[in-house]
Write a structure and sequence with these properties.
5-stranded antiparallel beta sheet; 5 helices; 12 strands; globular
Length: 263
């Protein structure tokens, strides 16, 4: 009788394991923070264009729009001015944290009074391995990915590369826009499914022709304020119970066999 009981318990535990959802990751608090930043290398004053940090939740498509660059006038022009678009994994909070981020972005379009529009060709889908977070030496850069080099190259081609020219250009910017979709965190989407494979990895310069899928989802006209597509409310779907139910007859058969042998 004890043997029969032990067999039944083992098989019941097996069924229970098969019924556990595939994802045990809490996806509710996974988000990115996006900003257009600039600083001078004389005083290392670090500033952001308004509205500053913009949060994008997992599963969300967001049109980023920065519209006020006027604080760039406070930077020193006695040295270089650095600038670009930076995107952080906002859920990092403990040293050692790591993540694998998958995003789809459009080209970045910058409009400035008195200058031709600038299009930064970065459209595509990318995978980024971030971390481990290390704050021991102050601000940690390994929890973010950037389009700094691409933005700098495109802007300086129009405005010039010296600090005064860059400052004048950025002060004249009326808007900088891009659309971003946060596809997956560590291989998990907001729905709990595996994400599509990245069309390009770490190669924005070659991804210009790869943006049609995301570009079709972007609004035809930039709204007065960024619009979002809400992520689904469920964070993970439980797998099909077909496998678990298929095991039930085997449980019954084994128990019957054990009983017959006993008698």
């Amino acid at each position: 009788m004890k043997r029969i009981f032990a067999i039944c318990v083992a098989l019941v535990l097996t069924v229970a394991v098969l019924c556990v959802p595939a994802s045990a990751v809490n996806l509710d608090n996974k988000y990115l923070t996006c900003h257009f930043w600039y600083q001078d290398t004389a005083t290392w004053t670090w500033l952001q264009a308004t509205p500053g940090d913009v949060m994008v939740n997992l599963g969300e498509t967001y049109e980023l729009k920065w519209t006020d660059f006027s604080n760039v006038s406070t930077l020193a022009t006695t040295a270089n001015i650095q600038f670009g678009v930076q995107i952080d994994d906002g859920s990092f909070d403990t040293d050692g944290d790591t993540s694998k981020i998958n995003v789809t972005v459009s080209d970045i379009v910058i409009k400035a009074d008195g200058y031709d529009d600038v299009t930064v060709a970065v459209a595509g889908t990318y995978d980024y391995d971030l971390g481990p977070l290390d704050t021991s030496a102050g601000y940690s850069q390994n929890h973010c990915f950037t389009f700094n080099d691409q933005v700098t190259a495109a802007v300086t081609a129009v405005a010039g590369s010296d600090a005064a020219s860059i400052q004048t250009y950025l002060a004249a910017v009326t808007e900088a826009t891009m659309t971003i979709t946060y596809n997956s965190y560590n291989g998990e989407t907001a729905e709990g499914a595996a994400p599509a494979e990245a069309e390009a990895e770490e190669a924005p310069a070659e991804a210009e022709a790869e943006a049609p899928a995301e570009a079709e989802e972007a609004p035809a006209e930039a709204p007065a304020e960024a619009e979002t597509t809400e992520a689904p409310t469920e964070t993970a779907k439980a797998p099909s119970t077909g496998i678990a139910l298929a095991v039930v007859p085997a449980v019954m058969a084994l128990a019957a066999a054990a009983v017959s042998k006993k008698h």
